[in-house]
Amino acid sequence: MKKLNITWNGINDPTGYLFSFAKSLAAVVKNSPYAELAEDIIATSGFAFRMWVDKKLCPSATSIWAFAEQKRWVENGGLCCDYVERLWGEDALEEERRTKAVAIVRKSIDSGIAAVSWDISGCEWGIITGYNDEEKIFYTLKIDGSEDTVAYERLGKMDMPILSVLTVCGRQEKTQEEITAGMLAIARAHLNGEEWCNNAKGFAAYGALISFVREKLSADTAWNLEYYLGTYAGLKLYALKYFEKYRLEEMAEKYRIVYGEWRAAFDAKRAKDVGDAAVREEIAVHLERAYAAEKEAFL
Description:
By secondary structure, this protein is α+β, with helices and mostly antiparallel strands. 46% of the residues lie in helices and 14% in strands. It has nine helices and nine strands. The strands form two sheets. Strands 1, 3, 4, 5, 6, 7 and 8 form a seven-stranded antiparallel sheet that branches. A two-stranded antiparallel sheet has the order 2-9. Strand 4 and strand 5 (126-132) form a beta hairpin. The chain is globular. 47% of the residues are buried. The model has no long low-confidence stretch (mean pLDDT 96).
């Protein structure tokens, strides 16, 4: 048996809805030998810039993307990763991939670094903090802060039966200039719709969300809107923090607006009645301003 002491302490989640993959990744890195990269990694992996919007505002849209790319994206930030996945339609690979996943998790825990895993938190990302070979279970930390266990044989077979496990296994020698250039290329590709996703993505996500707010928002979907606004506002903060930290002032200037408007939209949703057309319009206008600033940043 081996279990690491991992918590969410020190991970800035300004809205309480920070995307669970990004939050899990930051916590894993913060509690590793590479702790100085914990805040940067949300931006340098490109997740600070990602947006996906379902036409009905289903929250699961935030977790439907090209999972296999996460190794490349995270490694852009100067880390080295191991990664194993099994998706829908790959039932024949189930046992093989789960065996590999168990192996890389045990290897990572033995080196003192937790693992990021899909579906630990009920259709959300979470952290594997330890393992017990005698009982054949993993110890886990859910996104809500609670701890649990998962049997080895259940990994990848829970609420949404997909296997996706990422571990951090080292660091690369990369200059900050190389990391920043790679980050901006990844961000631009996503924002321009070049990454796979079945939902509206990148810049197109703005239009989908704004139209929904103005035309379709109801009491039944009010929480869904809060989830989206909180998720993406939290991510935009990490883009801003990166640009400020490395004194990329032109980008920082734009992202002060981007984050400020997403946060204002989120705060309006939390504090006001979205049954009021004027409030819905206020939220839509904040998103339009964020879109204009983010678009200008990548011209």
